[in-house]
Amino acid sequence: MTADASKPTIDLSFPHDWQAKVLAARPLILPSRHFVYPQSAEEIERGALEVLIQPDAAGTQTVNPRLLKAEPFLATCALGFRDPAVPTGLWSTPKPERICAVAGGYAYLIDTVAPDSFFMIPYRPVMEIRSLVQQGLLLFTGHHSILALGRDGLAWESEKLSDEGIAIIGIDGRELHGTGWKMKTARECPFALDLRSGSTLRRSSD
Fold it and tell me: What CA–CA distance (Å, rounded) separates 120 from 123?
């Protein structure tokens, strides 16, 4: 049972030290290295995104001796939601050896050199993913707030910006502009975030 990988998003905006391919189904013969994320049979039963990953020492962006002995592996990422409104696919990240695999809005950050090291973005589901190469951030938008991943891990998380749904309008240097739905006023309210800290710069009154 697999996620709908017919049209996964592939965003390689950040330099990366790996190659990866989304498979239509799990191979009949599994490679010697196979990792399941998370390690829960119940979640995998709903479906999964199957990704064949090869750490790439030849294309390394940094001097990383760990890559020289790294072997390919199959990543089985449990599906979140069967809904075309949530993302599925692969993203490069600010850290070259880390890959972000997303299955139906469940986002997994995997160290391709040490695949047993991973963590999940807490938004379930993630509604949008955006690469900000100039700022060195990978943004994850949930229903209520925004989280930023930097080279060293989670950089910041915004305060609650919406009761149900966030739209990013644009990026202006170090500022992010967007709108969030406010149940109290039944309207979209604009806001601005500082991309360096995630703090709110401006926000309309509720």
Answer: 8
